[in-house]
């Protein structure tokens, strides 16, 4: 299968090879060393401020979204949630479940966040802000530096979900004054799902150290303490952490995060150029590099997804909910090439020839 989804994506060969080996025992100095290396490279690639830390959670990234909300906020907070799609809505739902005080800044699907919209809110009314840098359900990239300037005015605790944007779009945690960034193994990191990562600024670390979180597994201070010796409180997804290590080192060797981001950007630009020949339109005002949401002018988006899967052995990403029949998404992360884009365009051209679009 040729995989144009947004995760799990196609892993490079070296990552797959590690996946075929036995999983080693992990309470060893050797594994601790690998974890230390993982932490250093993540901090470097995220441009995290000095004395930041990264912890590796064995859960999907939603687990880390929830852990962040649980560890960094209390009932005394008022949180602004940027909600432009299913991932923004997920943050709102987490706040709801944990009975936190929050307000949603709602955006239409595909709509970008502007300074004017943000300016209708008073930063003095908020103590926290949650945003998904790339709202992957609609492919909209938010200006996280603009939001960071808003947060700075009232020392708003600023959490950015970079799950699909890390290593796909330029990100500098220092420049956007973020306190927390979250990412996961199965997006641009191109490893299997199962591990997510929380990067904490010194301010976030202080808060985690002083919170009494009502959770055993999602106690970030426990994760920080264990991480000091390159370990985790409980058995982590050891195999995936080894794969992440190989992948991070390969990115470093090839020139670092910026080189990888440029590669993904090129893959996206190549697809967006090639698809112009077909009757589709783009539906994002501020397109992220990781994914292109596409609206077929004729034909049904979900039928196209099914035909590509069954007849051409190509996966694209269908949308859920009320977008199911109008929009599908084409991912540009993972081990894909310009030739792969051509294969997809040829398949779509063939579907058009058959009269389905
Ligand atoms: C994929 C993704 C997540 C996490 O999804 P999981 O299925 O929990 O790994 C969170 N936020 C964004 C923006 C994503 O793209």
TrEMBL record:
Keywords: Aminotransferase, Pyridoxal phosphate, Transferase. InterPro entries: Aminotrans_V_dom, PyrdxlP-dep_Trfase, PyrdxlP-dep_Trfase_major, PyrdxlP-dep_Trfase_small, SP_NH2Trfase/AEP_transaminase. The keyword Transferase applies. Its cofactor is pyridoxal 5'-phosphate. Substrate binds at residue 329. Residues 30-279 form the Aminotransferase class V domain. The modification N6-(pyridoxal phosphate)lysine is found at residue 187. Gene3D superfamilies: Aspartate Aminotransferase, domain 1, Type I PLP-dependent aspartate aminotransferase-like (Major domain). It comes from the Bacteria. One of its GO terms (molecular function) is transaminase activity. SUPFAM superfamilies: PLP-dependent transferases. This is Class V aminotransferase. It comes from Intestinibaculum porci. The lineage of its organism: Bacteria, Bacillati, Bacillota, Erysipelotrichia, Erysipelotrichales.
